[in-house]
Amino acid sequence: MSTDLAFQNMSRDESDTPSYRILPHNMEAEQGLLGVLLVDNRAVEKLGDHLHADHFFMPAHQRIFAAIRTMIDRGQNASPVTLKNYFEQDDDLKDVGGAEYLADLAGSVVNVINIDDYARAIYDLHLRRELITLGEDVVNEAYDHNLESDAVGAIERAESKLFSLAESGEVKGGFVTLRDSVLVAIEHAEKAYKTKGSVTGITSGIRDVDKKLGGFQPSDLLILAGRPSMGKTALAVNWAFNAAKAYADSGGEEGGRVAFFSLEMSADQLAGRILSEQSGISGDAIRKGNIKQEDFKAFVEASQRMSQVPLYIDDTPALSIAAVRTRARRLKRQHGLDMLVVDYLQLLRGNGSKRGQENRVQEVSEITMGLKAIAKELQIPVIALSQLSRQVEQREDKRPQLSDLRESGSIEQDADAVMFVYREEYYLSRTEPEPGTENHMKWQESMERAHNIGECIVAKQRHGPIGNVKMYFDPNITRFSDLDPSYFGDQNQDDEY
């Protein structure tokens, strides 16, 4: 069905009298609102900035409203007299009586107070018309078979448009009084006091990480980066599962419901990692089948614990940032959502873009801005994993730096916190000197010091200090956990730099 047919869908009854199905609108509400504005320009302040000219049904009313807003914004008086010259030759206005129609609008005003009701009615009917148009687009796209767009893609685009339409009427932004802001700040301070000043956001499940960050805070975009085999996916999975498990164990008092977008690994591979970590059985042994009969009891117990945890995994490859936003919104509406993890951002696509067709740096900038927008819109922390450039491998000191981020400009700029995963043991194990030499003895000492140690380097934190957090890493079950304070004796584990 085309747009023209939607505007005038004619059917004939028994008497052969034409019957027209006109798009929903309320002419009286539009006339009443315009009349109020022409009589009292100050009434425009009650409308805010969410009612636009294209929300009106009649083209003439669209042009009148736009002219009124323009004159008021310029500090001029908008009245039938001042607007008359603009509309004397307007073809749209001739159909409703010419410039005299402006005087008729102002003269028909009964009550200025009704402007809020008029605005709500106009906007509601505008949404209904948009729904009709959206429905037509969905039908037309479903009929249009081409190699560039499959049915699943069409569904995702329709769903994205529908969610955007559903939320477009929500008036967001605007000024907040200092009094209201202070009350929110006091609530946060009270929460911090009750938790002994440690975790006010979503817990990571690792003591020293929570101490450094205060937990993962709502509306924050956190980047977790590292070279391959450093364990960034393992650490992100640990954080996600720990947060979701804390939510389940505390009845919702701690932790949170977590969405995990895995663009690299499948859902069953991630579940296998968590099963290994929870059962204490090596992931390699599970894959190869080198397990004992009694290990299955550990599997059952671990699976029972995992089944109660609100961790949702989406392993759809090559998602666009729009699809991530749509699916996150849907999950929040259906089941609730407190934290989102993306593994990893370089595998996401920009909206409507295809890899290789535009500048990759610009696309990554669009992706990071989109992830930050999701964090702010849904009021949740978003953790996005990122690759590091190969220039790390060219340096003698392999510790990552902010400049090592691939397409680093937008990532570093948009992120509220940037963290790196680093394991010195990985690099040391690949540089063993000749046995029996003095260098080999020094190497052994370094290996002992770095054995099973992982580091979370907080290189940027917008709301707190930077520093280095050491963690215990068990490579057999890919688990990062708290490091025993006695591991290094009296050495400080949280080094600021």
In terms of topology, how is this protein built?
Elements: H1 3-7, E1 9-12, E2 18-21, H2 27-39, H3 59-73, H4 80-87, H5 91-94, H6 100-107, H7 115-143, H8 151-168, H9 178-194, H10 207-213, E3 221-226, H11 232-250, E4 258-262, H12 267-279, H13 283-288, H14 295-307, E5 311-314, H15 321-334, E6 339-343, H16 360-378, E7 382-387, H17 408-414, E8 417-422, H18 424-428, H19 438-450, E9 453-461, E10 467-474, E11 479-481, E12 494-495
Give a concise summary:
This protein is α/β, with parallel strands linked by helices. It has 19 helices and 12 strands. The relative contact order is 0.09.
Kindly state the number of beta strands: 12
Low-confidence stretches: 1-15, 353-357
Q: Which homologous superfamily in CATH is the superfamily of the largest domain?
A: P-loop containing nucleotide triphosphate hydrolases
Overall CATH class of the largest domain: Alpha Beta
Describe the structure.
This protein is α/β, with parallel strands linked by helices. It folds into two domains: 21-168, DNAb Helicase, Chain A, CATH 1.10.860; 186-495, 3-Layer(aba) Sandwich (Rossmann fold). The protein is 47% helix and 12% strand. The chain has 19 helices and twelve strands. It has helices spanning 3-7, 27-39, 59-73, 80-87, 91-94, 100-107, 115-143, 151-168, 178-194, 207-213, 232-250, 267-279, 283-288, 295-307, 321-334, 360-378, 408-414, 424-428, 438-450, and strands spanning 9-12, 18-21, 221-226, 258-262, 311-314, 339-343, 382-387, 417-422, 453-461, 467-474, 479-481, 494-495. Strands 3, 4, 5, 6, 7, 8, 9, 10, 11 and 12 form a ten-stranded mixed β-sheet that branches. Strands 1-2 form a two-stranded antiparallel ribbon. It is elongated, with a radius of gyration of 30 Å. Mean pLDDT is 79; it is low at 1-15 and 353-357.
